[in-house]
Fold each of these.
Amino acid sequence: MSSFPYIHISCPCHEDRPQTFTIDSARPISPSKSPSKHDFNFLPTDPHTPTKRRTLLGGFTPSVSFDGGNLGLDLDDDEELTDEDDENNFDPRDPRSAFSLFPIENLLYCEDCHQIRCPRCVQEEIVCWYCPSCLFEVPSSTVKSDGNRCTRNCYLCPVCTALLAVIPVNHSSGHSDHPTGPFNLFCSHCHWTTSDLIPPIQLEKPTSISAQLSKLTHSPQDTEFIRLKQHYAQQLGNAQEDFTNSPAALTRLMGLYTGLGSGSGGHGGSRKGRGVKKLEMKEVDRPREVNEEQELEIVERMAVEGLEATTTAKQRLTQPHEPRFLSDLTPTAVLLRTKRSKRCRACRHILVKPESKVQTTRFRIRLVALNYIPSLTIKRLDSTITWNNLTPHKTHRFLLTVTNPLFDPISVSLLTPRRTPGTAFASRVTILCPEFEVGANTDVWDDALMSTKPAAATPSGVSTPPVAGSFASFSKDPKMSTVYEQKMNYTSVVIEVVPPEIPDTRETRIRDERLLEIPIYVRVEFEAEVDRDDEEGGGGKPSHSGASGGAVQRERVEYSYWCVVGVGRVGDPVEGVVASEPNTPVRTPVGTPVKAPRTPAAMRTPLRQVRS
Amino acid sequence: MGPKRSGASSASSAPLPPLKIDPTTVLSDAISFSGTYPITIGANTVLHPRCKLNSTEGPIVIGSNCIISERTQLIAPDIDGLVLGDYVHVEVNCHIQAARIGDATSIEVGTKLGKGSCIGDNCTLSPLSTILDVGVLPAFTVVYGENQRRMDTSATAVARNETMLAHIDCLKKLLLNKSEKYTR
Ligand SMILES: [Zn+2]
Ligand SMILES: [Zn+2]
Ligand SMILES: [Zn+2]
Ligand SMILES: [Zn+2]
C-alpha cells in the first residue's frame, strides 16, 4: 500500500444521495480572495445517514473481509459505542468511502458549487492532440482520419519502446554534414536496428519516415483492414440517402446486429417480410483464415530459432500484425497524447484549462483544492516511532499541522471518534487541542522563506521535546493542552494514538486489520469579506467588523470535510508494553470524548452557513 | 571510504597505491585511490572527480580512451585484479567488482557488476542493470529492461568509439587535470 503517513481527504461525492445546492448567483470568486459567506449558501443534507451506513456494513463488508464471528464482534462494538456522534462518524474502511479518498494534491475545487471535486466528479475534455516526441499538434480531424499516432518521424523501438534515431547504415568516418543513405532506424537503448528485421528495412532518406515505412512494411493485416474499410464505406455510401430519421433505417440497423441482415446465413428469414429494397447492410462474412501451411512453418521456425527469437506477449500485442518472431517486429509510431480541461460535473464550470499551445506547460485556469481548503500534515513527535511497526498499547504522539491557504485567519475544530470506527480492533485516538486558530496566509514570500528553513520549526509551545517513556513531565506541561506550535499560517497540535493488539490478517483476509487509519472531521470557520450587498442575508445581521461603513462587510463562513490519516501499521505486541487502560496519559477522562461534540449538528452538515 | 575529502587529503593520511599512469590521462580532483596493489591507467583515459578505485584485493588495469564517471567504484575482486579494456565507458554511480570488462563496453548509470563477473567486448548495460557474481556476458550482449538480453547486430561499434573520442576531447577541455597530485 501507500507509504506512511498519508492524509486523504474525502470528496463529498461518496455520499449516496446527490446534494442539493442553492446557488443564488454564479458569481465567480477570484482565488486571491477567500470565499465569502455568500459563496457558501447551501442547503444541508445529511451525508451520513446512519441506516445507510449500517446497511452497507451489514450487507457488504462481511462478504468482503469478515467471517461470521468477527461480524458479530463488529456489531457489538458498534452498539456499545452507539451515541449520536458515533453514527455520524466517517468510516475509512467503508467500501463506499474508499472511492472518495484522495490526497489533497489530486483534488480540485469548484468555486461555484463551493465543493471539493475529485477525479470522479470532474469531466474531462480534450483540448488538443499532440505528439509527445516532436511536440507537434495534430488537428482532431487528422486524428479521426489517420489515427492516434504521430504521422511524422517519431517511432519507438518495438523491442524496448525507446525512441528510435535515424542513422546511416554505412558508417563513414570523418565529419560529413550530409550523411548518405541508406538509413536505419536505431534504438540507442537496446541497439535494435531496422536491419535486424527479415527482410531488413533500409530507408532512402532520413526524413518523411512514415511515408517510407508504410511502403516497406505492408502486412496482410493492412490489406484486410483496407478491404473492410472499403466494404463498410461502400455500404455506408449506398445507405447514405436511407440514413435519415426514417424508422426503416433504424430497423435495418438493428437487424444488422441481431443477425437478421447479415449475409452469413443461418437466418433463413432474413429477407422476408421487410420492405427494404435493394439495400441490405452486410457484415463482411469471411471467417478468420488460418493457413495450416503457414502455421506449420511458424512451428518449424520456432523449433529452429528457439524461444529467444520469439516476441513477448507485450511486444506482440502492441503490433497490429501480432508477430511471433522478433525479426517480424516493425517500428511503432509514437502514440499521441492529449491536453485536457476539466469541468465540474455538477455545474459544468471549468476547473482546469491548460494552455492550448503544446510547448507550454502553463494553465489558464487551475482551481486546485490546495488553495481553498486547509491542508493537514502529520509527523512523528518522537523519532523512535516506526510508521510500519507501531507498538500496541503504547501511546504514540504525532504532530498534526493545519496549514491555512486563505487570506483570512481561520478557526479550526478537529473532531475525531474516540475509537477508530469500522473495526473490531479500535485504537484510542485523542487530539490534545482540538480547537485552535490558524493565521492568515498573508505574505507569499514570507511563506516561501519559512518553508526553506525547516530548522525554524522548533517547538514553541514546549521547551523540551518529549521523549518516549517520559510522559510524566510531558503531561504536567500545562501548555500541552494548548497548541504545540503556532506560526505564520499554520498551527500544530498533538494527536495521541494507542493502538490495540491486532492479529495479522494480511494473509487470510483482503483487508489489513493492522492498518491504522484515523478519520478526522475538519471544521473551519472564518470571517470573510463580503464586498457587495447580500440580498438574502445582508439585512438580517449587522456586520462583525465595526470598521466598515457598510461598504465592506465581514461575515462568518463555515465549512467542513472528513479526512483520513493513515498513521501506520500496528506491529506485533512488545514485551513489557501492556494495556494501561486506567492510567492513560490522556488528560481528559476516557468517558469524555475529546472530539468536542459541542455543535453536534455540524457533524451532519459538511458545508454550512452560520449567521452570527 | 569514510572521509569526505579523499584524493589529496587521503594521500597525506594513507599512502597511495603504486600508480602507473599514462601522461595523457586526465585525473580529476578528489579521486580516491586505496589499496596496495598497483593501479594502471592507459592513454587518453578520463577519470571524473570522486570516483573510487580500490586495489586492496588485487591490481586494477584501465585501458586507453576510457571514461570513469563520478561516484563510481572500481574494486578489484581478487588477486587476478580488475581489467578494463579500451573505449570502456563507465557511467555515474556504478559499483564494479568485475574481473574483466571487454573493449568498447558501455556501462550505464547505477549498474552493479558482481564480484568476479566477466563482461565481453562491445556490450551495453542499460541503467541500473545488475550482473551477478561470476556472471559472464558474451561479446555484443545488450542488457536492457528487466534484465532482458539481446545480441547487438547494429554494427555501430566503430561509430560509438568515435563518439567516445569526441566525448573525451570535450571532457579534456572541461575537466581540470590534477594528475600531478597523484603522481608526485
Ligand atoms: Zn468526488
Ligand atoms: Zn512526432
Ligand atoms: Zn530498443
Ligand atoms: Zn461546480
Amino acid sequence: MSSGPTTDQPMLEGSGIEKYFGAFRVLKAVDFAVAPGEAVGIVGPNGAGKTTLFGVLAGALPPSAGTVRFAGTDLTGTGAASRCRSGIARTHQVPRPFLGMSVFENTLAAARFGAGLGERAAADCAAEALERTGLMHHANRPAAALGLLDRKRLELARALATRPRVLLLDEIGGGLTEAELNLLVALIGQLKSDGLTIVWIEHILHALVRVIDRLVCMSAGAVIAQGRPEVVMADAEVRRAYLGGGVA
Amino acid sequence: MTHYNVERWTRSGRLTVGAALAGLVVLVLLPAFASGLVIDKLTTLFIYILLAVMWNLLAGYAGLVSVGQQAFFGVGGYLALRLVDAGLPPYLALIAGAAGAGIAAIPISTFALRLKGGEFAIAMWVIAEVLRILVMFDPLVQGETGTSLLALNAYDPELRRNLTYWLGLGGLALMLAGTFWLLRSHIGAAAQAIRDDEDAAASIGIDVMRIKQIIFVLAAFGCALAGTIWLASAITFLPRTNFGVQWTVFMLFMVLVGGLRTFEGPIIGALIFFLLQEVFGNLGVWYLAGLGVVAVGFALYLPAGLWGSWQQRSGLQLLSVNVVLRKSGQSTETP
Ligand SMILES: Nc1ncnc2c1ncn2[C@@H]1O[C@H](COP(=O)(O)OP(=O)(O)OP(=O)(O)O)[C@@H](O)[C@H]1O
Ligand SMILES: [Mg+2]
C-alpha cells in the first residue's frame, strides 16, 4: 500500500478482519474496501457475519485482529463516537431509536454531535433528514410511537443527520411495499450522486442492483465472491451458499 | 429550503418560571416574617428537593441508577468540617466542601462509570461505605462518636438559622436553574440518548463517557451541597448518619413517587416526603422499610409516578426539557 493519499485509495477499508465471539469465529480474515463515491451491496445467508462486519467498521465492535482505515487513516483503536464524527454513519438492522425522545430530538442529537453543528444549523440538518426520509409528519411524536418501518426510516434519518461521508445501511428495505421500496432506492441513488459512499446490506436483490456498482457476497464469515452483481449471483459458490438459505 | 424553528419555551413554561421567581422573592424575604420553626422546616424541605432533583438527574435523565449518593452527602459535610478546622469561615467552608466533593467525584467517576446497570449501583454503595470508613479514621471525626461544627455556635442562633436557610434556598435555586438549563442543552439531549441506548448514542457521535461524567459530577456536587446544608442545620456530624443509606431510600422514594424523568415530579415527591416525615419521621427502621416498599410499589405499578401519570392524563407540562420543531411562521399554540 502506498502511504500518501491517491485517487484510488479506498474510502473505508477493513483488512484481515477477524472477529471471535468467545471461541466462535464469526469473521475469517475478511478484506473489504469501498472506494470514494462507490455504492457496494452486501448479500449473504443469515449468520454470514454481515452485521458483525458493519459493527467492526463502525467501531461498535473491536476486531479480534485486522485493521480498519478510513480515508487512509488507521481508525482501528477508535470508538464508534469518534468514527461517526469523522464521517462513518451506520443504521442498525434492529432499529435502536431513543425511545424517550421525540423523532426530531433523535435526529437533532445526531446533527448536533455527529455532524458537530451548532444549534441552528443542527435543527435545519435534522429537519432535512426527516424530510428526505419521509418522517417529517412524525417529527414531534415520541419515537416510541413509531412502528417498525418508521423506526427503520428513523435509523436512516439519524444516520443522515450526522452528515456522513460513508453510509452503512443494514437491511433497511425489508418489509416495505414496492412503492416504498422505489422511494428508498431513489433516495439512496440521490445520496450516491450527492457524493456519499454507500455500503448496503440487503436481501432484496432487485432493489440493491438498481443502486450498487459492485456486489459482495459473504458466507460463514468470509467474502466468497465480489464483482458485477449478475456475475456474483451466477457464481457457483454463491449459489451453493444460498442453497436452503433462500434468496430473493 | 423550508426554514424551521426549534421551540424550547412553551407558554406554561414561561408562566412557571415567572411564578417560581416570584416564589423565590417571597422565600428570600420570609425570615423577616416567619417563625424560626417554619424557617428550619423549610431548610429541611430545600435539602429534600435538592436531593430528589439530583437523583432524578442521574437516574431519570442519564440512566445512572446509584444507591450510593450518600457518599457525596457525607464527603461534602466532612470536607466542610476539615476546612473549618483549617480556619475557613464556616459558611464559606460549607460551599467549598460541596465543591470539593464535586471535584472528588471526577476520579470516582472514571472508575464507577465503567460499570453498567446494577454493577454501577452497587459500586456506588460500596464507595459510600469505603469513604465512610476512611473518614472515621480521621481523628477530627472521632470514629463512631462523630463531631460537631462548633464554629457555628459563634453565630447568634437567629442569624445562624437564617444564614443556613438562605444558603439552602440559594443553593437549591441555583441547582434547579442549572439543572434545567443543562437538561435543555445538547448535553441533556445526549444524556437522554445514552439513557435510552448507549451504543446507539455512540453511533451518532456522542462521547458517552464524557456526558455521563458531566452529569455524575453535577449530581455529586448537588448531593454534597445538600449534605453541607444539612450539617449546618444539624451541627453534628455522625459518620453513620451523614453517610447513611437512608438518604438513598429518601431519594428513591421522592423521585419514584413524584415522577421519574419529569422535571417537576421529584419536587412534588419531596413535598410528599416532607409531610410524611412530619407525621412518621420518628418511627425509625420500620418507617424506612415502609418508604422503600412504597417506592418499589410505584416503580412496579405506577412507573411514571404521581406527577408523570397526571401529566400523561392531563397533557399539561409545566417545565418541559423537550424541543418542538416548527415550520417558520407557524403558530406556537398547536400541540
Ligand atoms: N454479540 C454476539 N455474541 C455472540 N454471537 C454473535 C453476536 N453477534 C452475532 N453473533 C453471531 O455471529 C454470527 C454472525 O452474525 P451477524 O449478525 O453478523 O450475521 P448477518 O450476516 O448479519 O445475518 P442476518 O442476515 O441474519 O442479519 C451469527 O451466528 C450470530 O449468531
Ligand atoms: Mg445482519
